[in-house]
Amino acid sequence: MKRQILILFIAFISVTTFAQTAAKRTAEFNLDKKVAIQGYDPVAYFTQKKAVKGKAAIATTYEGVTYNFSSQANKDLFLKNPAGYEPQYGGWCSYAMGANGEKVEVNPETFKILDGKLNLFYNAFFNNTLKSWNKDEVNLKKKADSNWKKIVN
After folding, report:
1. How many C-beta atoms lie closer than 10 Å to residue 86's C-beta?
2. How many CA atoms lie within 13 A of 126 on its CB side?
3. How many Å from the N-terminal Cα to the C-terminal Cα in the chain?
4. Residues facing residue 68 across a β-bridge
5. pLDDT digits (tens), the chain, 153 positions
6. Are 86 and 62 in contact (CB under 8 A)?
């Protein structure tokens, strides 16, 4: 009997922790109607080296965040390593996160793969922040990592 109660308690704590993590992620991530990257396929950035719009019919949810995919094969790759394909900094502009810790919208077609991670950037009104990021990438990345940790912790 004690063992069953312990197992139920551990299961309850696990479910509660997962729900809190998922809620925190959805509150802090850049989501459009609960979908990340404005519906673009996170795997295509790595496999096709370009931004490809995903399909709502081919989607999955990882820790509260929904991702669309352009193909079942990309969805399958994502499911094998979700954290490896998620965008940095919750899908917010990497430059803005590094420069001043702000959550700024992105243009999903302006991106860079750095250290095996997808970084997205604001690019509108003659302001392509990827260019600014490239000028001081090492320092901005360190600052962005630190700023993002403050947001999600």
Report:
1. 22
2. 0
3. 37
4. 59
5. 665 554 544 444 444 444 444 566 678 999 988 899 999 999 999 999 999 999 999 999 999 999 999 999 999 999 999 999 999 999 999 999 999 999 999 999 999 999 999 999 999 988 999 999 999 999 999 999 999 999 988
6. yes
Instruction: Please give the backbone phi and psi of residue 15, each rounded to the nearest 5 degrees, phi first.
Output: -65, -40
Rounded to the nearest 10 degrees, what angle do helices 137-152 and 2-28 cross at?
130
E runs forming strands in the chain: 31-32, 35-36, 55-62, 65-69, 107-114, 117-121, 123-124, 127-128
Question: How many whole angstroms separate alpha carbon 122 and alpha carbon 41?
Answer: 18
Cα–Cα distance, 44 to 46 (Å, whole number): 5
Quote the Cα angle for 36-147-114, to 5°.
60
Residue with tokens 């600052």: 143
Q: Full-prediction pTM beyond 0.70?
A: yes
Supply 131's token pair: 């260019």
Q: CA dihedral defined by 36, 69, 63, 120, rounded to 10 degrees?
A: -40
DSSP 87: B
Q: In what order do the strands lie in the sheet with 35-36?
A: 31-32, 35-36, 65-69, 55-62
